[in-house]
Every structure is written in C-alpha cells, then in structure tokens.
Amino acid sequence: MIVTLFSCSDTKTDTNVTAFVYNESNGVQSLDPALASYRSAIWIGSQIFNGLVELDSQLNVGPSIAKSWEYDSTGTLLTFHLRSDIRFHDNSCFPSNRGRIVTANDIEYSFKRLCNARTKSTGFWVFRDKVIGASEYFEQSQSGNIPESIQGFRTVNDSTFEIRLMKPFAPFLSILTTPFCWIVPHEAIEYYGERFGRNPVGTGPFVFREWQEDISLLLEKNKHYFKKDAKGIALPYLDKITVGFARNNKSEFFEFSQGKLDFISSIDLSVHDKVFTPQGQLTSEYAQFQLMTASAQSIEYYGIMTDKSLSVAQSVPFCGDKRIRQAMNYAIDRQKIVEYVLKNKAIPAHQGIIPPGFPGYSSQTGGYSYNIAKAKQLLAEAGYPEGKGLPECTLQIGANETTASVAEAIIEQWKQIGINTKLLQVDFPRHLSMIRNGELALWRTSWIADYSDPENFLSLFYSKNAAPAGPNTTRVALRIADSLYEAALRPTISQSQRYALYNQMERIILEESPWIFLYYNTNTWLVQPNVHGLKATNPLRLPLEYVKKTS
Predict the structure, then answer these.
(1) Residue 278 lies in a domain
(2) Residue 4 pLDDT level (bands cut at 50, 70, 90)
(3) 152 shares a domain with 102
(4) What is the largest CA-CA distance in the chain?
C-alpha cells in the first residue's frame, strides 16, 4: 500500500509562498551541532546554522561569520575577523524574542562547549591535540571541574577571535567547516538545556519552526539573513522547507514521481532498472527529471598489511613484495565491475587516492588501469610466473551483499593471473576491530572524507598514524612520503604548493601499493524540472539558500 507523504499543496501553500519539500528516510534524533555526526541531521542543520568559515561550491574554504583571517609567521596563531551584521534567529530564549548580534564571545562559547566532556559531543576530535589546552580542558571537565577558559581560544574584542595551535596544521581551516563548529548562542543552550537539539537556534538562512516527530519538520525563511546574491538580492529565495520522515523508499519514489517531493537522494532498488539505462542515464519515462551525479568524497579499497613484523604478514608473499601488490591492481577490470556489478553508481579508481572532484585531485597523478599482461609480468618478476608457488590468500570483507558481489568478481579476475583467493565475510564491527588491531593481511574497507582537504586521505599513509592509534591500517612507512606529508602541513605555503606535495606523495603510495584501488562512490539525485540552483557537489550539505522554484 502506498502511503501519502505530502499533499500537493505542500510545495506551494499559496501563490506567493514557495516551499522546498523532501523526505529524510533515516530520520533525525537531534539538531544540536555538537551531535551532528550523520547526514540527515547535517542536511537540516546546514539550513539553520553557520560556522566561522564554510565550503563554497568548489569545496574551497570561504568566509561565513568570519569575513577574513590570517596566520602569523609561525603558522600556529590564527586570527579571525568577524562580520558585525549577523544576528541569531528570533527566539523566546532572547529578551523580547529578538535575536542579537553574533560576537567573538559566541565563537569561544561554542568551541568550549565542543571541548566539554559533559556535552557528549562526537566532534571533540576537531580540537583534540590541535588547539593548545583543548585536551586538558576536556579531561578536567570529565570530573566536573570545568576551567573558565581554554588557552588556545582568545576573544580579543567583539569582532576578533584567535585560535592558537600546538603546531602548524594547514587543514585546520577545512576542519572548521564541519558541522561540529557551527555557532550557537549561550542563551538557547541555557534556556532549552537538553531540549536544545529539538529547539535549534542559529544564524542560517532558515529558522526552525516546528517538528512533529517521525512525521515532518518545518523551517521558514530567515528574513534577517546576512547573505545576498550577486545582484544584491537577499537570500534565501525559498520561503519554507518541509522535511518528511517516511521510512518507506518505495513510497518516497512514488511521491517524487507525482511531483510531491522536490528531490530524492536515493533510488529504491525495486525501481532502479526502470529509472536508469544500463549506462546510468535516465530512461525515456523519467527523462523530464534532472539527474545530478557527484563524487561522494570516498574511495573503496582493499588494504594490505605491509608491516612484516606482524605474524599475519609473515607468511603472505604480497605483504612484503610490492610487485605482487601492483600485479593485483593491474589485474582488476574496474570499468567492468562498475558497469555490471555496481550498475554505474561509482567511478573506477584509476587515478589514485584522492577522489575526482575533491580538492587536490589531479588527473595527472596516474594510477592502475586494467593490464593483464603487465600483471603477469610483475608476478613473474616476483618469482611466481602464472602464480605458480603463490599460496592461496584470504580476502576478508564485511557482511554486505554489494561488497560481496564486487569481491567475487575481483577474485575471478585475480584467478586469471594465477592468484587464488578465498573470501571470508565477518560482521562489520568485528571486521573493523580486526583491521585496526593488525589481524588481517588483506581486507576490504573504505574511507569517507571528514573534511575537504586532501590531508584527510593522505593521513592514512603517514607512519606516525599507524593503527590502532591512527587511521594508517596498512601500517605503511615510507620516509619520503612522511616528509612530503609534513611539509604540506605548513599553512604558510600556498594551496597549489600543498596540493603538489600531496600529489607527489600519492605517486609514491601508488608505487608502493599498500591498497588495491577499487572505485570512488558517487551520489545520485533526482530533481524536479522546476527546481533551479541546487548543486550536488558536497555530499554532506544540501545547499538550499540559492535554490529557486518556478511554477
């Protein structure tokens, strides 16, 4: 039975009011930025809140509450200069229900709140081991003994705020664009207490109005929003946003096809072949809709343990010989897997570590294409012609149907060069624990960017980040790669210089091959033809402030 999510009147309540309507099948528990660790909350929260800085459509860091900033000569002192015309939303937490101007005190308050253990935020990593005094503040707050200040945060005056880092860390500005760093007023936290996540107050383009749990959520235009378009017209263009919480994806698609939803971000598998051609384009029945596809800022790969001191790697030849790892990369026909197994919902990982469309990506970095002759040559050079003498290996993956289908296809391709592989599926929590603890020689996993800086990907190959303390699960250790990584952390060099260092590091990692590169995930949106200005460039944002609708 089809359950109606919205009536036709939801997209336009009258001829003068325009609403954007979408469904969030995963639901939302809280809209507190300190707890914004999942997409559905971030998409809604990005309409309500702003941070000091934000990402533009090209995923570059740009101004928001801060109009400008600069580092000192040491690269450790970052000074922000704030706009003086940004107001918090009108709300009953303020005197006379009128929102006040944002000052540097609000920045310090919001950041200290993130470092307070009692907030129970999943975002403390933003400042941990980066900002002077942040970790000490967190530790003391655990016992209830909360210090008055954090040494690395300083309010100079109403419009100037300083952050002092423990050491230079160029990606820090990108990290400040994460939802955890959205700015909140102390009045709202004090007024609503634990209910703040259900009564959010920010500075964003839309104001929170109503939340009917598991039914719908309503946001309305912020008439005091500080941004204007290139022609000087006040943003946002839309008057309202309505979010539904129906969990049935089939119903969601039906409502979209009837024009009652403005976009959908996932297609139910039961209708996939009806909507898309084998090449991933829309069929004639659905050609009137807009199809938007963009990088999901993630990469799928098989990791290989390179630390020969671990017992798990001592009896597996490819753990100690990069020629075998390279052969395994060359033996994979990624294009065929994307086309036939993933139904064109991904991009073959031919270029390297950084996904296409992500800052720092370069098509000139190189990578692995399908080359069966090269794969056989490398195996022979390693002493295993046609795979003879090479023991069977085990590939462990999580208990997921799609990853299992991909693995089965790759195992068949490896068999063509004489590499025999056994597939083992384990529940994901156990699988992840084994990866981090160095218990596996070959495993499947993925990496999704936490912030839009290439450092987030390259940190997986920095020797000092070796698991279990860090994300370098293959425990690869290359002195030259480490030196390039460290050089790129200096905020005093230009962005192009940083990206060039990362690309050079990528080429070194590609040569070493601690990963079997598989594919880059993509996001696919279907959008109504009368929606204009929506962009799918950032998977962790639903940018609606520039969206218009025509009748």
Answers:
(1) no
(2) very low
(3) yes
(4) 81
pLDDT, tens digit, for every residue of 94-122?
999 999 999 999 999 999 999 999 999 98
**Backbone region of residue 320 per phi and psi (left: phi > 0; alpha: psi in -120 to 50; beta: other values):** alpha
Of the candidates 404, 409, 280, the one whose C-alpha atom is nearest the C-alpha of residue 334 is 409
CA angle 320, 324, 330 (to 5 degrees): 145
SS3 assignment, position 526: strand
Cα 516 from Cα 306, distance rounded (Å): 13
Residue with tokens 């084998």: 278
CATH code of the domain in which 134 resides = 3.40.190.10
| Shared-domain flag, residues 61 and 186 | yes
Cβ neighbours of residue 386 closer than 8 Å, sequence gap 6 or more: 376, 379, 380, 417, 418
CATH classification of the domain holding 490? 3.10.105.10
User: In terms of DSSP bridges, do strands 240-244 and 19-23 run parallel, antiparallel, or are they unpaired?
Assistant: parallel
| Segment 147-200, tens digit of pLDDT | 999 999 999 999 999 999 999 999 999 999 999 999 999 999 999 999 999 999
Structural domain containing residue 538:
12-243+528-549
Assign residue 545 a region (left: φ > 0; alpha: ψ between -120 and 50; beta: otherwise).
alpha
Q: Are 531 and 263 in contact (CB under 8 A)?
A: yes
Exposed/middle/buried for 373, CB within 10 Å: 0-12, 13-18, 19+? Answer: exposed
Encoded amino acid at 342, one letter: L
pTM above 0.90, yes or no: no
